[in-house]
Design goal:
By secondary structure, this protein is of the alpha/beta class. It has one domain: Rossmann fold (3-Layer(aba) Sandwich), CATH 3.40.50.1470. The chain is about 35% helix and about 25% strand. The protein is built from 6 helices and 7 strands; from the N terminus they run βαβαββαββαβαα. The protein has a 7-stranded mixed beta sheet with strand order 2-3-4-1-5-7-6, sandwiched between helices. Helix 1 packs across helix 6 and helix 3 packs parallel to helix 4. The protein is globular. The N and C termini lie close together (about 10 Å).
Length: about 190
């Protein structure tokens, strides 16, 4: 497990990046949300009783064998302001930076590939940049889901366009692979 474990009950936060609204479903920019949806269902997470308005995000939680609490966060601030919701949750629950894992799309990685990274710059991803700025650190672990390279359209057009049928099949498998990787990292 890459995330540090101590004797007291720790809180782990998995942040899936995306945009709220049905119109963004099945688009590259919502892969973080969709991976969290799989985890939520597979591991029976329950919706937090804490108000969404307070944190500007949907929060789901699960206590794992009394050793740790795992939170899933889907910021509702839209991608470029994801750091607002993440900062509120981190501050409220006093979550250690090493216990945070981001899940998001990455145009710099080949389509359907997954990459784990322990920290670093945003790579031009506005949601990650917002989180780095709000938490004042780039030492945040990440699962990056490859959606690149793009050609013939702007980045904005590409990340908000729905997957075609063939690419959706590939990305469905990739999302399941991402869930397995996250399960190993967090040790569900």
């Amino acid at each position: 497990m890459i995330l540090k474990k101590t004797q007291k009950k720790e809180i782990f936060l998995i942040v899936g990046l995306g945009n709220p609204g049905k119109e963004f479903k099945n688009t590259p920019h919502n892969l973080g949300f969709e991976v969290l949806d799989i985890i939520k269902k597979k591991h029976n997470f329950s919706k937090s009783k804490i108000s969404e308005k307070k944190f500007q995000g949907e929060i789901f939680e699960k206590n794992n064998n009394g050793e740790k609490k795992i939170l899933l966060l889907k910021p509702q601030t839209f991608m470029n302001n994801s750091g607002i919701a993440v900062k509120k949750v981190v501050d409220f629950f006093k979550i250690k930076i090493q216990n945070i894992l981001l899940v998001y799309d990455d145009l710099n990685i080949d389509f359907g590939k997954i990459k784990f990274k322990k920290g670093g710059r945003s790579g031009g991803h506005k949601g990650v940049e917002s989180i780095i700025n709000h938490l004042n650190t780039d030492k945040i672990a990440r699962i990056k889901i490859g959606t690149g390279p793009i050609s013939g359209q702007s980045k904005k057009e590409f990340v908000l366009k729905k997957f075609d049928e063939e690419n959706q099949k590939t990305i469905n498998k990739t999302k399941k692979d991402a869930v397995e990787r996250i399960e190993k990292i967090i040790n569900f």
